[in-house]
Write a structure and sequence with these properties.
- By secondary structure, the chain is of the alpha/beta class.
- The chain has a single domain, classed as Rossmann fold (3-Layer(aba) Sandwich).
- Helix content is about 20%, strand content about 20%.
- It contains four helices and seven strands.
- The protein has a seven-stranded mixed sheet with strand order 2-1-3-4-6-5-7, with helices on one face.
- Strand 3, helix 3 and strand 4 form a beta-alpha-beta unit.
- The longest helix is centred in the first third of the chain and has 11 residues.
- The model has no long low-confidence stretch (mean pLDDT about 85).
Length: about 160
């Protein structure tokens, strides 16, 4: 059985995200290379790194707009706290759970939130994730808004 906390993003969702937001060049929370060329995995301890320095080094020459973060769902808070600093433009894929403390502190009013209308079936899992999932858009100097939705399965490149 696949670890329920390991929610590797399916390639079709990444394709839809890139069609809508532009190419992603850095994955802030990778279990292995799967989203893009530049990634930070557990061996580099993402939370201890300066994400802005990593982003500036890896993304600017390529013109990529966003970093990607699909954190372990059992340990979202420290990743969301770092994203909430809005030092880099980033997209976070997390369960839509607006009643949690970490949502109140690090998402509401900070990130633009789009609830995904179609269930996401993560790589290695036999069924769709049992809760709604949200794409949180963090951008420097931009305050968030909640309430949007996105039918990502209808997005084509």
């Amino acid at each position: 059985m696949t670890d329920p906390q390991c929610t590797e993003t399916p390639p079709e969702l990444i394709a839809a995200v890139e069609a809508r937001f532009g190419e992603i060049h850095m994955d802030l929370c990778a279990s292995r290379p799967n989203v893009c060329q530049f990634y930070i995995d557990e061996s580099r301890d993402s939370l201890s790194l300066d994400w802005k320095a990593e982003y500036d080094t890896k993304s600017e020459p390529f013109g990529a707009r966003f970093a990607w973060c699909n954190p372990p769902y059992g340990n979202q808070a420290p990743f969301l706290a770092k994203l909430a600093e809005r030092k880099i433009p980033a997209l976070a894929l997390i369960p839509y759970d607006s009643g949690t403390k970490h949502w109140q502190q690090y998402v509401r009013g900070i990130a633009r939130v789009e609830v995904l209308l179609s269930r996401v079936q993560f790589v290695g899992h036999n069924a769709g994730f049992p809760k709604p999932v949200a794409l949180c858009v963090y951008e420097p100097g931009v305050n968030g808004a909640e309430g949007g939705s996105w039918d990502w399965r209808g997005t084509r490149r």
